[in-house]
Amino acid sequence: MSGFAYVVEDGKVESPPLKQALGRRAGLVWIHLTTNDERAQLWLGGEAGLSPYIIEALTAAETRPRCDSVGEGAVINLRGLSSEELATSDLLASIRIYAHGGCVFSVTRKALNALHPVRELVETGKILDPGDLIAALAQAITEELDPVVADLGDSLDDCEEQISAGKAFELRRTVNRVRSQAIGFRRFLNPQRAAIEKLAAMPSDWLGDDDRLHLSSAADRAARMAEELESIRERAALTHETLTDLRAEQLDQRSLIVAVAAMVFLPLTFITGLLGMNVAGIPYAHEPWAFWGVFWLCVVMAVAIAFYFIRRHWFER
Fold first, then answer.
1. 15 and 53 in contact (C-beta within 8 Å)?
2. Side-chain half-sphere exposure of 290, counting CA atoms within 13 A
3. Which of 29, 104, 216, 270 is the most exposed place for a label (fewest CB within 10 A)?
4. What's the confidence (pLDDT) of residue 164?
5. Axis-axis angle for helices 52-59, 39-46 (nearest 10)
6. Is the pLDDT of residue 187 over 60?
7. DSSP class of residue 25?
8. Is the pLDDT of residue 317 over 70?
9. 3-state secondary structure of 179
């Protein structure tokens, strides 16, 4: 288990050890833990003295964005990008927060990119209370996700411009990747928008009017990204269907060419097979012109059959 702590009072910022930060009275006491084991539960229950419900909310293995009022405080779960490799079904790392009065406890299991800029804001004295901290986290998470969602849309735009049967396999891989990521992000952005909106409307003394405005802005951005991801998902499905149709059309065209070739050579094979029987009585078997006569007969038949298919427009796409 690792972590850090900040104590902010009257614009002064301290970074004491975790145990020393407990019990401090200040405008903001932020205690953050990074852990994947049970020691966090023991520390939060023993040293920090938090209730079992809050400990479970902060250390649960599986979480989704949420916001619940707990007494005078609130439990908030948010999701953001991580520098660590995550499962394809879980593309965003979580941060679990319990805020009350002037104190904030937060826990992450994977590295969260948004923590770094928020810590810089705390260290420079730009975050003074829990409302500022949570609003800054929500804004940092949504600001980082915004260009990633935009890049997914740009990738899909490029695929739509390059649609052709010759690039079907390559484009389908790209479209499948974009659709998978869009579904993974959208899975968390919709409930995250709802959680941030619920927090902004929560009647808490530690949330100021400016904090609520920042939270509402982050919720609006999350809602816009969720709508964009829904659009990307639908467009990716349509593009995938178009590529599948192009591939099927390409296979049909090739099958048609094979069928036409078989139709051309089928009567020729019959004639050569019939005349190639090793039995007596084959007409013109001893004539010197017989071979070339059969050869040119087959050529004329092949040309006639091919001309028939051309006139019937079988070779047109």
1. no
2. 10
3. 270
4. 72
5. 150
6. yes
7. -
8. no
9. helix
Are 88 and 187 a contacting pair, CB within 8 Å?
Answer: no
Interatomic CA distance for residues 134 and 276, integer angstroms: 90
Mean pLDDT of the chain: 83
User: What pLDDT does residue 12 have?
Assistant: 86
DSSP 52-114: HHHHHHHH-SS---EEEEETTEEEEEEEE--SS---TT--SEEEEEEEETTEEEEEESS--TT
Please state the rounded mean pLDDT for residues 222-240.
87
In 3D space, the residue among 312, 313, 298, 213 whose CA is nearest the CA of residue 264 turns out to be 298
Question: In which band, very low, low, confident or very high, does the pLDDT at 50 lie, cut at 50, 70 and 90?
Answer: confident
Question: Tell me, what DSSP letter sits at residue 165?
Answer: G
DSSP bridge partners of 73: 70
Written as six digits, the tokens of 118 are: 């928020």
Q: What share of the chain is helix, strand, coil (3-state, %, to 5)?
A: 60, 15, 25
Helices (H) and strands (E) counted in the chain, each on its own, are: 8, 7
Provide DSSP, 236-298: HHHHHHHHHHHHHHHHHHHHHHHHHHHHHHHHHHHHHHHHT--STT-TTTT-TTHHHHHHHHH
Kindly state the tokens that stand for 246.
């192009």
Residues in the chain, how many? Answer: 317
Q: What is the mean pLDDT of residues 78-104?
A: 83
Provide the residue type at 39 as one letter.
R
Inter-CA distances, 298 with 142, 211, 247, 267, 308, Å: 73, 88, 35, 9, 15
Question: Which residues are within 8 A (CB) of 220 and not within 5 positions of it... i.e. 6 or more apart?
Answer: none
